[in-house]
What does this fold into?
Amino acid sequence: MILTLGWFRRLAAAALLLGAAPTGLGPRGPVAVADDGELLVTVMEVRADRAVLWLRAGAGERLRVRLRRDGAAAEATFDAVPAEAWDHTFRMPLGGLVPGARYRYEVTDGHEIVTGAFATAPAPQADAPIRLLWSGDLGGRGHCRHLEDGYRIFRTMADRAADFFLFVGDTMYADHACGGGPRVAGADYVAATLADYRGKHRYNRADPAVQRFLRATPVYATWDDHEVRNNFGPRDPLMPVGLRAFRDYWAIQGPPGDPDRLYRSVRWGRHVEVFILDTRQYRSPNDRRDGPGKTMLGPAQRRWLLDGLLESDATWKLVVSSVPLGMFTGGASSDSWSSANMFGYPRPGRGFAWERDLILTTLRAGTVPNVVFLSGDVHHAELLRHDVDGYVVHEMVAGPLAARAGFPRFLDRSLRTRSLGSLGLTRNFGEILADGEALTAVIRDTAGADRVSVRLPADATRGESP
It folds into this structure.
């Protein structure tokens, strides 16, 4: 029997109805990630004139970093001493960089040498095409580092030679005891302390395929629920330690006076501006009745987002939301934007649909063209078209990288949502190629095969796109 997309959606609805989706909960156990002194390096938060080099070494190690721009004779040298209080990590800011340039670096702790490279963002008006990747959901129950292959999908992602990677949430599973199959030891516990949370991040970061990828592909990460525990909100007593561990390992530094702020924007040449949301830290309780008094973003972040989108002159405005706009994600109280039930029909008072619709209608009133949301969370990939009274935005969903794979499901009827293609039961990542003419989104599997794709011509509604 051939299973059509409609059958997949019915199977997904049945699984959610019967509670078949595993919770991932398990017994609390000790942190068992060996601290063998392995040198870990990640390139993060790259802009046109700066970047951050994140480092982790063994206890007491001193690091030497050499940085050189391609074509330049001069070399900059930096020293770092990772601190025990920060789990032996160190975030090294690199300033005064040249836009659109390629840099190579070398890090040594005296006996191990790590090399890598990255490119800075082009200047804001540079007519430069872009290739970026996005996905989420890494290391869920039964899907942690394979004993032989590790997180194999990152080898495929490294081969794509992207400008950067957007990690759209669930960068690790603090609330899952790994278990299952031939897995690298060290993640078979549920996190409850700062050391536990750091151990979960360290376990994923130390995977050789992940390291190869993150040493040469700049990353911008945001969190979702599993960085603390399933469907958490700001009142969760574990949120402070989960947030501290997340910031320790992803080197995100908010502005003065607000160091825990995770939402931020990235400009990449003339054609792309990325707005990265924090959908966890400021949200109202999921079970609060939806309306003007309920928010996922909080007033300050919502105003920042709308102001940024209304003012942006980039051809493409990409909005990273860890949870999707247009589909049911399970539970009596929706954890995502949509109020839809498993069959796509609205449930008045559920979800965060009032705020979502306020954002979309504001963009419609401002005739903001070429808005694309990038999301994850639902463990399958799908390319979506939403229609708000004739104003069209697209949403691209990708994942999982390594977690339980899911099915496509019924879509939110209130957004007149139409699927442009989907992929279920498969680990995957998304790839975007964009310039002044068009944006092409591709969903690729672990082997790198093109499984679903769509091409969107640029809309020059406000005369800002070429």
Observations:
- The chain has two domains: 5-28+125-457, 31-120.
- Residues 5-28+125-457 form a domain with the Purple Acid Phosphatase; chain A, domain 2 fold (CATH 3.60.21.70).
- The first strand starts at residue 40 and ends at 44.
